[in-house]
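Holo prediction — EPZ.
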Amino acid sequence: MKYVVNGGNKLFGKITVDSAKNSILPVIAATIMCDEECVIKNIPLYLDVIEMSAILEKLGKKVEVKDDNLIISGEIRSTSVIMAETKTLRSSIFMMGSILSKYRKAIFTYPGGCDIGKRPIDIHLEGLEKLGVKFTFANDLIYCDADKMKGSEITLNFPSVGATENLMMASTLIEGEITVIKNCAREPEIVDLANFINSMGGKVYGAGYETIVIFGVKRLHGTIYKCIMDRIATGTYLIAGAMCGGRIELAGTNPNFLLPLIVFLRNSGCKIDLFSDKIILENFTRLKSIGKIETETYPGFPTDLQSPVLVMQTISKGTSIVHETVFEARFKVVSELAKMGAKINVSERYATIVGVQKLKPANVICPDLRGGAGLVLAALSAKGRSEVDEIFHVERGYYNLEKNLKNLGANIEKTE
Ligand code: EPZ
């Protein structure tokens, strides 16, 4: 599948942003800790969400989509998460914490790396060992014995999002025990997961700060929950508006989750109005380069918006430097952008960009999720016909992308 884009249109109009992929995935994993019915409202069917739901079903949960809600109930029949999907879906590792919390044993395939780096899980495993989990490794499998799980004080050597979420879930059902996790990730999706667990009767406090305290409870009850909006999709649409020019309104968003990007967009010359639940961006000038951009863990500039912002710099006036500090291989999109006339030089974790007036249309291939989104933005801004191929990468994390962009006036079609 590919997008055929006839770029060059300015964007005008209003779209509503969907729930966050990186909230929904750990929330789906957390439903393993509860046998009663959990309803996750307004569920965008990202490919990753479909895959995560399929894994839950294979484990024995009842999963259905009804009126755009995801309804999950019942118990898992197996604690062996050994299936093809877990090789491609890294987020399945989140299930380790929830399964061990409730069932105290599990077998996992070692999650694969992916397009943006090795993606090790040492921080996850070290934290779980502190909770008393014993691991044995054989033929690419991880055998987990959590019979003797107990509360503990854990300090993460890096504020890993996944490890923070895994340990929050692992501690949730260690009844009567207190677990303290220090140097936690502080992303809004961590707060969302804590709120979800607490809506089921869990006791998770301090999410969003660097220390989280979990009081283990005996069991969890069913819930109805709506996840926060997707701040990365929101940022991607804002950058589309900045690059193409025009005036766009994004509803259902929380500007507080995007402050570093909003500062960048204002410094690049865009006019941005912020409201409690919407963002309006307007730009009719040539973008100015924003100089040095460094990705950081939250609340710093998010690594997931690095590719879209790098693409924005390719047509901004001046030179800029992007420093990717979180993942080791997140510049794969650069070689595809070169086909469109971008002037980018990469050395290790630094990319230096000299802005050109306009990118040229070309046929390009998505290297990964966010790099692929960047290529769509590049094609929208380049006057003429471009093809963006292997868009399954993009559909992992963007729902109805071409429909939303069409609603804003873009000329984009999805074809075989
Ligand atoms: C989550 O991945 C997100 N995925 C990623 O979004 C996001 O880029 C990342 O957090 C950082 O914000 C989901 O939430 C499903 P990390 P995660 O553990 O949890 C290293 C997207 O585009 N590390 O915070 O895997 C790791 O290699 C995706 O939507 C270890 O060394 O991120 C990386 O360099 C991509 N050992 C850094 O930490 C570990 O045990 C950040 O990883 C774990 C991580």
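READOUT: The two ends are 4 Å apart (CA to CA).
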